[in-house]
Design a protein that fits this description.
By secondary structure, the protein is α/β, with parallel strands linked by helices. The chain has one domain. 30% of the residues lie in helices and 10% in strands. The chain has six helices and four strands, in the order H-H-E-E-H-E-H-H-H-E. It has a four-stranded mixed sheet with strand order 1-3-2-4. Helix 3 links the parallel strand 2 and strand 3. The longest helix is centred in the last third of the chain and has 13 residues. The radius of gyration is 16 Å and the shape is globular. The protein starts with 31 loop residues before the first helix and ends with a strand. The mean pLDDT is 88.
């Protein structure tokens, strides 16, 4: 990632830009062609009702890679640990909506590691208060149960 304005003041251990308020950061476009001509958002996938129901029942909230249903154990999934300020969070978009190229990038990595699903807080944490609380309480188990965890931080 190209350095930001004032990046010369950052150290190898800390980048000031990584502390940006994630709610104001536009979701990143992963492919160069999308940076010039933005791709669309994925719609009709990662439905909030399906996610809320799974979380309320205490079930896993990792999505099948097709984005239509929750993945059920023992099927493998990839968890993503990321920094919201680098544009991999929801940002200004509605919950559950992600850029096609960004999801394609992450799902491509999942497939390389024989994963059939993905747990990414951007699409896997509900907005409904009760369901959200239950899902947040299971975050640690999502990382423990994942086949792999992808660590994504543009500022390292």
């Amino acid at each position: 990632m190209v350095g930001h304005k004032g990046h010369e003041q950052c150290t190898p251990n800390f980048c000031e830009h990584s502390q940006v308020d994630f709610t104001s950061v536009e979701q990143r476009y992963e492919w160069p062609s999308c940076k010039k001509n933005p791709c669309s958002r994925l719609l009709d996938v990662f439905l909030r009702d399906v996610l809320n129901m799974a979380a309320e029942k205490g079930k896993p909230t990792a999505w099948d890679l097709n984005g239509k249903s929750m993945i059920q154990p023992p099927r493998n999934f990839m968890a993503i640990s990321h920094v919201w300020s680098d544009g991999t969070g929801t940002g200004t978009q509605l919950g559950g909506q992600v850029n096609k190229c960004l999801y394609s990038f992450f799902s491509g990595i999942a497939k390389q590691f024989q994963c059939e699903g993905i747990w990414w807080d951007t699409i896997c944490i509900p907005n409904d208060k009760a369901a959200r609380s239950k899902a947040i309480n299971k975050i640690q188990s999502n990382y423990e149960d994942a086949r792999i965890t992808l660590v994504h931080d543009c500022y390292l």
